[in-house]
Structure formats: structure tokens, C-alpha cells
Fold:
Amino acid sequence: MIKEGNNVNLAVPSEYLENSNELCDLFNERIENDSVGLSPYTVKNRKASVKKMRPILDAIGIYKLNQLQELEVLIELRRAVGKALSAGKLGRGGTPDTHISNFITLCGRVGLPNSDVQNLKGILKQSYKDADIEETPKVSWDAEMIGNIIRTSHEWLASKPVKNKGNHWSYIDLPYGYRNVPLSPTRFARVLAWAALQMTTGARAGAINRIRRRDITKDSVTWRIRKGRRKTQPETSFIPESIQPLLKPILKLDLEANDFLFNVPKGDISEDCQTKSDLRALLLASGIPQHLGRTGLHGARSAMVEANRKAGNAASVVGPALGHRDSRTAEIHYSEVGRKKNADSARDTYHRALESQFVTPPEWKFED
Structure:
């Protein structure tokens, strides 16, 4: 129990202030033990969640698992999480959801009874209501935005590298990307290829990152869907003619058939941070707005759904092209524009029905 007279700032024993948090140490140990059965990204995210939640736990004085079964502690936790959400200390957009969900999952993994886990989930759900966070609308992608990126990429293709004082070739007239350094010919080829392949396929970044030289020709690409599957599912797509020129630089590189196109260390699959930083420069140059400080071509998936909506196809029809096993996923995550227009249309129809009751009928006059 929290002693009477203690507040949220005075509940931590001095020995825990000077050392690590016992509960967070237990979380991290559990993550390491579970890591053999988790993807590297899940392990990374759970560790990040522990790091984000620890200041809240330290401030309240939660350092043992059994404290999460005490009513007074849970009340303080609800308040503290609500304040952290309001202040943006857990991130913006969907990031707080991830951190809180990971925290609840870890509590169950380290031994909190299931009934208490469900109680904790309900309490932290109330923290969102206490925080009164307004949903941040996502950037609405469409085919026109993808067209702007293609046009900018063609402008980049017209650029010529120059030799600098260090006798290295670089594109000094293009926006600087990774570490604010001019693009080298290799980075130039990679960023245009990445943009071309993700705009063509709408695949996730992880799938693009794993494409090898043997997977592409001048007019086709093969990639593999991995998320949510024990076995990879290969997909092949024709590359539109307007995008094909963007692959020319990387097709000229001296690569073996099994070489990855992008900067993947040997024996390990990791994100190509270099190409992603260069891609950010390309997108900003194309006029693509940032979302909560982030940029990326994941929006190509939304653009595919929106293009099909305009053509009369439901989002569920696009799901298989995006690698979804459940057709409802595309409707839930990539149909913001369609849902907004449907909502506007529904309100307009309702308003017209109301107004129609108060329209003064025209006076009829008989002709002489």
C-alpha cells in the first residue's frame, strides 16, 4: 500500500531511486528470455516500451509486480499515464497504444494473474479518456501524390554527378539525405530503386529491404510477404512504364544474383537506415507532407486503396494485393479518405431530408 501522506512524487524508496527499477529489470529479463520466439522488431519495441514507461513507474513508486494489484496504486497509475499521454511523453499517433499494450503484455508475461491483467487493461483505457487526446489525422495519400514522387525522381535522373576534392563522385545539386551528405552514385541508385519498387508494389518496407538482384528485371519485380506468415508468400508485379527508368541506375551496378539491392549486412536482416534517410529527402522534395515528423512510402498502400475506391472497388478487394490475410484489414487501416467521404455524404443526405420539410412549395399559376 502507498502510505498515507505520500504523493505521486514521494512514493519511491531511496534505494530504488539510486538503482534500477526491479519491475523494469524483470520486464527486460522476460523480453530477453522470450526473444528466441519473437521477431527482432517486437523485441526492440518492447524494450522501447519499458524505457518509456519506467519514468511513470518510478514517479509513482511502482517497483514490484504485486503493487499492480493494489487499488491505490492503480488509481495513481491511471492518473500518471493520463498526464503522460496529455503531455506527449509516450509519443503521438499510434505510438502510445503500442507502449501501453506492450506494458500490459509484459505484466502478464512476468506473472500478473489474468484477472488483474484485464483489470489493468481497463484502467489504462480510462487513462485515454482522462487525457482527452484528439486523434491526429493521417496524411491522405492518393495516386496524384505518387505521381509527384515519380516526376521528382525523373528530375533527379537528369542530374549528373561531379567529382569532389577527395576524388569521389557525388550529386551536389540534389537534396542531401543520410547524415546531410551528398548522394554518392550507389546511394543515388538505391534510393530511386527503393522508391520505384515500393510505389509499384505497395509492399511494406521490410519486404522491399529483402529484395535481391535476381528478383528484378527492367520491367518486373518479385518480393516476398512475410508478416503474419510462417512461410513467405512470393508475389510478382509488372513495373509501370513511368517507373521503369528509375531502376536503370541500380541495374547498372555490379551485383551478383544473390546480392541484396539495399544496404543489408551479411548474415543479418536489418533496416537500411541510409536509404531510408535518402528516401526522406526525395519525398520532401516531392512535396509529401510529414506525419508527426515522419516520412516514408508506406502511404503508397493507402494510395492503392484510394485509387481502387475511386474506381468503384471496395477496400477489401485490395487487401490481397497488400498482403493481408483478412480482407477487413485494408478497410480498417487504409480507408480513412473513403470513410470520411462516406460520413460527409451520410450527413449531407440527412441534412437534405431535414431541410426538405421546410421548403416552401412553389405557387402554381394556370395559364390563361
Summary: The two ends are 94 Å apart (CA to CA). DSSP finds 15 helices and four strands in the chain. The CA atoms of residues 27 and 47 lie 8 Å apart. The beta strands are 162-163, 169-170, 220-225, 233-238.
